[in-house]
Amino acid sequence: LGYRVEDNGNKLFDVNWRKTFMNKTLWPFVGGILNQNDRLRYDLHDFNLNAKVLYKGHSFKTTFYSGRDAAEMGMYENNVSNVFDWGNQIIGITHNYDLARGRSLQSSVSKSKYDLNLELGLLGEDLAFTNRQFKYVFESQYRHTYNRLNWKTGLFIGLDVTDPIISKVEDNAIFKTNLEKQKQYSLILFFS
């Protein structure tokens, strides 16, 4: 499901939403092939939004995306149960400035998040793993085109953060272990 607005071939606004209905269509059919006590499910949905504003050689574009997948598998009369779900979110802003004569300046800033949840259950003992990753980016570049010669130079600054957690359930008690959070910084100057 989506909606788009264009002006002279420029996409100014675009929004769309997707969702699968496999849990209502495909998996009941597949489930009929499996043992009736087993369980198998998968589904996904996402949302995407882009908007652009043009003003005197400037263009400002915002982007937002959010998506999620989920899967579940239960076997042996649900004594074994595995549940997975994962997804990501991205938000960003980009500014382009046309300096004329084949020159342009582009700057962008963005934040993204990815997370994964995994639950494994076997005969009453459960183990779960959660991992979250965050990425922060700033990038700026100058481009110049002259007589079919293209070159660009710029700067990239990034931060990646990983935050994993392991959980174990024994006798209805939950034990959580926060693993070491990791950070990685990037600074790149480029010319090509």
Topology summary:
Elements: E1 2-7, E2 10-19, H1 26-33, E3 39-55, E4 58-75, E5 80-100, E6 103-122, E7 125-146, E8 149-170, E9 173-178, E10 182-191
Antiparallel strand pairs: 1-2, 2-3, 3-4, 4-5, 5-6, 6-7, 7-8, 8-9, 8-10
Q: What can you tell me about this protein's structure?
A:
The protein has one helix at residues 26-33; strands spanning 2-7, 10-19, 39-55, 58-75, 80-100, 103-122, 125-146, 149-170, 173-178, 182-191. It is elongated. A hairpin with a 2-residue loop joins strand 7 and strand 8 (149-170). Strands 1, 2, 3, 4, 5, 6, 7, 8, 9 and 10 form a 10-stranded antiparallel β-sheet that branches. It has 192 residues and is mainly beta. The protein has 1 helix and 10 strands; from the N terminus they run E-E-H-E-E-E-E-E-E-E-E.
Primary descriptors:
1 helix, mainly beta, 192 residues, 10-stranded antiparallel β-sheet, 4% helix
